[in-house]
């Protein structure tokens, strides 16, 4: 019996020794910037909006129906997605479509419009599998049902721990006309059936 | 026996302590959001420093920043004419206290000779399907005004410099609004003001009475409490959490303990 107990405690100690590894990982896996525009370009992006057109801001928005990202061969339909009762953003139930966060801003309006897509389904890669390969300067086209097309350009690509992403920065108000693309990334944790990180591709409208 | 038991207990305690740091909620809950607005009509372009760090450079009249994160607590805000830090005194130097989880607009207001900082708390909520708006009178020499529908009722009444009204929740649509004096004289035509659903706005009247202008800023848009779940693991390399293993060890250990104690008692 004593041997059994000893074995137990040893197992325990083993588990404990593993623990710091997990905790280091948690600390180490904070924000990871995968791609970013040159500082000078960023500066331009974040320069405060001059008031000139401030009053008639946000009138360019469209209801997005289709997204094309030539750099990673994405051409997908966009569905409108709502907030659930638990205050979570719904996402398309399939792997091929991209969801627009309809309660938020329209792409082209001032603010952060949101498109989310799966990185994978249970069997393999999904529509946003290659999103992590985008880099600053890549272009994204979003079209409405009448064919009106807006062009956005990638500013930066950042991975966050799934519970530690700056939600207000991603979803919140902005003076700029931004479109942020979301998907999962990082290791898949089977115990919670979820990826450990979220990828955010920050893009801004290119004035045509 | 006691020794083994205490070892086990220690192990549980240690595990528990470490576990709690791992699964702690790491939200940036001790931060406030602050944006800066230049609403002083005759002041030059400015650089804004918070605690000695530049947060905005070369901001001109009517410019506003997006919200910036600031740790909760006291901060020293200094505003200099652009490029003059180190050569001249700041135009404004003021202590700013911000609370965690709150959003603020910090506006430089009034004419340059009387320039001051006005700190306004911004709403971070809206009823789903509604729009929310308030009006700020930041024009130093403009009279007391109402904001209302053209040929219709006032939505906001009796706003005078430097007052910011309470928010009003409205149905989202395009409104034909105007700024007018209490006798009904139109000061500024705001027809075609589109207020989107799920969005909170601040509409600031700025400039001098002779050249009144309007800035419309978004304070908040409806957002989820968490990032969406956008993967099912079909392309993931296997990695299982330690938690189930550790838990089963705890349960197994506890079971063994009870079993062992019973046996000892029986003897």
UniProtKB/TrEMBL annotation, chain A:
Domain of life: Bacteria
Disordered: region residues: 25-58
Record-given protein name: Peptidase C60
The keyword Transmembrane is assigned to this record: no
Annotated GO MF terms: hydrolase activity
Keyword line: Hydrolase
Biased composition (Polar residues): 47-58
Active-site residues, Swiss-Prot/TrEMBL: 118 (proton donor/acceptor), 184 (acyl-thioester intermediate)
InterPro entries: Sortase (IPR005754), Sortase_dom-sf (IPR023365), Sortase_F (IPR042001)
Keyword Hydrolase attributed: yes
Pfam families recorded: Sortase
UniProtKB/TrEMBL annotation, chain B:
Domain DUF4397 as annotated: residue spans: 32-147, 150-222
Keywords linked to the UniProt accession: Membrane, Signal, Transmembrane, Transmembrane helix
InterPro entries in the cross-refs: DUF4397
One of the Pfam families matching this protein, by short name: DUF4397
Bilayer-crossing regions: 242-260
Keyword Transmembrane: yes
Source domain of life: Bacteria
Signal peptide: 1-24
Protein name per UniProt: Peptidase
Protein's organism: Pontibacillus yanchengensis Y32
């Amino acid at each position: 019996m004593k041997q059994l107990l000893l074995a137990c405690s040893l197992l325990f100690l083993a588990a404990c020794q593993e623990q710091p590894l997990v905790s280091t990982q948690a600390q180490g896996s904070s924000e990871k910037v995968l791609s970013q525009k040159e500082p000078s370009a960023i500066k331009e992006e974040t320069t405060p909006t001059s008031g000139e057109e401030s009053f008639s801001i946000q009138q360019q928005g469209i209801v997005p129906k289709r997204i094309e990202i030539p750099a990673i061969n994405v051409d997908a339909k966009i569905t409108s997605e709502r907030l659930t009762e638990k205050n979570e953003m719904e996402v398309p139930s399939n792997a091929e479509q991209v969801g627009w966060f309809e309660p938020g801003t329209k792409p082209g309006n001032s603010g952060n419009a949101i498109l989310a897509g799966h990185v994978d389904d249970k069997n393999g890669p999904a529509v946003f599998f290659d999103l992590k390969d985008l880099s600053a300067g890549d272009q994204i086209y979003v079209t409405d049902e009448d064919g009106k097309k807006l062009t956005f350009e990638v500013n930066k690509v950042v991975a966050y721990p799934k519970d530690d992403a700056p939600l207000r920065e991603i979803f919140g108000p902005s003076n700029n006309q931004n479109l942020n693309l979301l998907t999962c990334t990082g290791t898949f944790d089977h115990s919670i059936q979820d990826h450990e990180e979220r990828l955010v591709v920050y893009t801004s409208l290119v004035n045509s | 026996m006691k020794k083994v038991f205490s070892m086990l207990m220690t192990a549980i305690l240690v595990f528990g302590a470490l576990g709690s740091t791992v699964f702690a909620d790491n939200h940036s809950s001790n931060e406030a959001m602050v944006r800066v607005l230049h609403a002083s009509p005759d002041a030059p372009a400015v650089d804004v420093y918070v605690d000695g760090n530049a947060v905005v450079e070369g901001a001109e009249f009517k410019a506003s920043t997006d919200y910036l994160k600031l740790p909760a607590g006291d901060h020293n805000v200094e505003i200099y004419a652009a490029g003059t830090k180190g050569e001249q005194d700041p135009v404004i130097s003021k202590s700013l206290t911000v609370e965690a989880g709150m959003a603020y607009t910090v506006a430089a207001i009034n004419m340059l000779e009387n320039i001051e900082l006005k700190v306004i708390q911004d709403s971070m909520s809206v009823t789903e399907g509604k729009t929310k708006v308030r009006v700020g009178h930041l024009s130093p020499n403009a009279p007391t005004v109402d904001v209302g529908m053209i040929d219709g009722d006032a939505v906001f009444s009796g706003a005078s410099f430097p007052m910011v009204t309470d928010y009003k929740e409205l149905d989202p649509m395009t409104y034909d609004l105007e700024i007018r004096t209490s006798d009904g004289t139109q000061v500024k035509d705001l027809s075609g003001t589109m207020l989107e659903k799920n969005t909170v706005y601040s509409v600031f009247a700025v400039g001098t009475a002779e050249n009144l202008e309007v800035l419309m800023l978004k304070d908040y848009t409806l957002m989820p409490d968490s990032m969406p779940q956008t993967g099912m693991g079909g392309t993931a390399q296997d990695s299982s959490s330690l938690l189930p293993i550790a838990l089963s060890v705890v349960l197994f250990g506890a079971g063994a303990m009870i079993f062992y104690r019973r046996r000892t008692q029986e003897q």
